[in-house]
Amino acid sequence: MANKIYPDAAAALDGLLHDGMMIMAGGFGLCGIPEKLIGAIRESGFNALTIVSNNAGIDGAGLGLLLESRQIRKMISSYVGENKLFADLYLKGELELEFNPQGTLAERIRAGGAGVPAFFTKTGVGTLVAEGKELREFDGETYVMERGLIADLAIVHAWKGDREGNLVYRKTARNFNPVMATAGKVTVAEIEQLVEPGEIEPDEIHTPGIFVQRIVHYPNYEKRIEQRTVRKRSA
């Protein structure tokens, strides 16, 4: 079996990146994002990228780094409210946005990974989301057709993984990472804990190794909090 372990993020992405490609980036907010791989993409200098991600990071972190370097041409997202630079670039016409309801985005990715080219949903009917898309009636209800998504590259972050690429995600990090791992022509995973094959119980595996081509191990991460909220002390 080919060795899937690479020494660092830059090595794991070597030969995979090019201008104008589509990249899926997993995670939810700042939780479970492939931050090391995002950093390596920034250092690569490739641009005109289309990024599929639930959100666009925040200013100075996550995908916000690629916005700062102007490497992203288009975002396919569902929530971008935490990034002031994103809003500024979009309003200036320097960034394209394909906006999706969150469930629709998740299903577009899942469908792409499952080999489903398109599906119909009621979400977005009668709104700007449905403009220019095929509408069809089923059982007296109107549905809009959405296309599945397949990316040139998927980058994901897992809590644990073995050398064969079997991955386990923790809690909020299970949002978008598992479906994206199946929907990339090539999937690169960064993991916090690297174990040997057989150490992960089969029932615990969220992403089977067949979907993962390359792995990079980083044991230490800064666990950022996107919005720190604390309860006010009583007088």
Question: Could you report the average pLDDT, rounded to the nearest whole number?
Answer: 93
Element string (H = helix, E = strand): EHEHEHEHEHEEEEEHEE
Number of strands: 12
- Biggest β-sheet strands, sense, barrel: 9 strands, mixed
Query: So what's the CATH class?
Result: Alpha Beta
Unreliable stretches (pLDDT < 50, length at least 5) are none
CATH fold name:
Glutaconate Coenzyme A-transferase
CATH-level-2 architecture: 3-Layer(aba) Sandwich
CATH homologous superfamily? Glutaconate Coenzyme A-transferase
The helicity comes to 10-25%
| Count of separate structural domains | 1
Assess the beta-strand content as a share of residues.
25-35%
Number of helices: 6
Q: What structural category arises from helix and sheet content?
A: alpha/beta
